[in-house]
Amino acid sequence: MDLVSNTAATVFVPVTCYTGDTETGVKVPATAHTHDGFRAWAVSDDFPQGVRATFIAGEILVDMSPEYFESHNFLKTEISAVIYGIVRQEKLGRFFSDGALITNEAAALSCEPDATFVSHESFRSGRCRLTEGVSRPNDSKELVGSPDWVVEIVSKSSVRKDKQLLRKAYFDAGVQEYWLIDALSDQVDFELLTRDNAGFVAIEPQDGWLTSTVFSRAFRLTQRRDAAGYVEWSLEVK
């Protein structure tokens, strides 16, 4: 549903947003139709809480749907815990959890991945940087540049965004490795995507294991049922 609202105080731009399976609307200021304007809105006090907004090459997508637990939230928690543990133990760089605003100016992209990793070398080389905070210089709200790694876990409302739009946008943004995980059906699809000349390509699993060049490890995603009957994900590492 496209929304255009004109009042004496504020003008809002058309935007498509979703809450669950129902299309609805959210007020986005007219200034957000440019990438610079969107970035300013995203770090402002006017940005609505609990809303995930994405700017991809001029298109604004807003997702207000709550996360499914088994196919998204539990899985995101497991992946974040394992990768954060590796990053911290090996002192590889910085891990950014869900909700971190990531921007790449060349790709006209601003989004909030399910998780992000940036190596110390990427910070040292200038591939990535944190913008200066407003009230506290070192307390930034935005990471700018080309992260080493991002992960997106597909939800019902994000299939097109994660599998099509972000797949291209993350490549254009110089992301080295993109993990794309779809657990919406009984057959879990875990793609570990690496860069080729024209786009991302999925590496072939070896006995069920996917090897990451970013983390120099192989990973395998498994699941079982816990004592309460809920799914328990395990990101195995070797």
Automatic annotation (TrEMBL):
CDD domains per the UniProt record, alphabetical: DUF820-like
Transmembrane segments: none
Domain of life: Bacteria
InterPro entries: Nuclease_put_TT1808, Restrct_endonuc-II-like, Uma2
SUPFAM superfamilies assigned: Restriction endonuclease-like
Gene3D superfamilies membership: tt1808, chain A (3.90.1570.10)
Domain Putative restriction endonuclease span(s) in chain numbering: 40-196
Entry protein name: Putative restriction endonuclease domain-containing protein
Native species: Botrimarina mediterranea
